[in-house]
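Here is an idea for our session: we take a single protein and study its fold together. To get us started, please write out a protein record for me. Once you have written the record down, we can walk along the chain together.
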Amino acid sequence: MVINSEYMRQLLLERERFDNPPDYTVKTTGVGIARFVIRCNNNVNEVLNLAKRVLVIVNYNSEPTWPSFEQWLKILPDEFINNCAPELSKSESEEKIDYRRTLPWEKQVSLEKNKKWSLGNWLAWLEPDTREWFWWNDYKFDGEIENTHFLVEVTALDDPFSSGALKWLFKACGAIDVISTDDL
């Protein structure tokens, strides 16, 4: 798999931002910043720290070659992996899709919103030729919501971009919900 230069640039900038978050005067990379509010069950620090740990591992292992699925199982935290859905065979996946198509639309939407991602599906969206977002910064709130909510900013390569993998990252790390500030 060939890694394009923009992806590589974003990967290196993301590494820097993990250790040295940018302040508000730093010009964004990509096409801009997208913000997400993450709601937790009184465990903001645990969710945020695990999510960053997972992303750091993905970042530092994304090049020069993408690891095999078996390698990812060895290097990603068990707390994250154990919250992912089991991997399905092609026939099992097709059966699940066929079943969902028989359900009323509202039920399909509800199932889709609450479904767990398998590790393989999540990793597919983080591969170099697929990934559309990179960590920018995080902010913890004060007051009543300080241990139940935090804000994450990502820089996106496209607008709009697919945010499902980002949302699943936080849910698999223990978040209750992840909402784009565009949806508020």
